[in-house]
Structure formats: structure tokens, C-alpha cells
Amino acid sequence: MKAKTLHEIHDEGMNALRERLGPVDMIRFIQMFDSGKGDYTKERRQWLSNDLDEICKEIQEMQKKEL
Asked: Does residue 37 contact residue 29 with C-beta atoms inside 8 Å?
């Protein structure tokens, strides 16, 4: 038996996922293994306030816009 290339294994795996899960759930399954990039904690500090009063004010403003 001939050893398969990584490309062949990848293609067979993707085909199996698509056949079993369908294209949408196949993509959702694959996304579970993507950890993303960057430092979420560091980036979060850039766009979130640590001031509780400021956070409450922002929430109230968003709620007003939704009405």
C-alpha cells in the first residue's frame, strides 16, 4: 500500500467532513481549531474602560439607540 501525501489526506478529510456534516457545519467544525491571532487581554484593554461608571454610561447609551 502506497503512503498518501499530506495533500491527499487533507483532501480526503475535507471531503469526509463535507459529506458527513455539510458545508456549513464543516466550516464551523474547522473554526473550532483556529485559536486566532494576537493577545486578546492586551487588545481588550485598548477598547474597554476599567471605570464602572463609564461602562454603565456606555450601556445606557447603547440601549437608547436600540429603542
From this structure: no
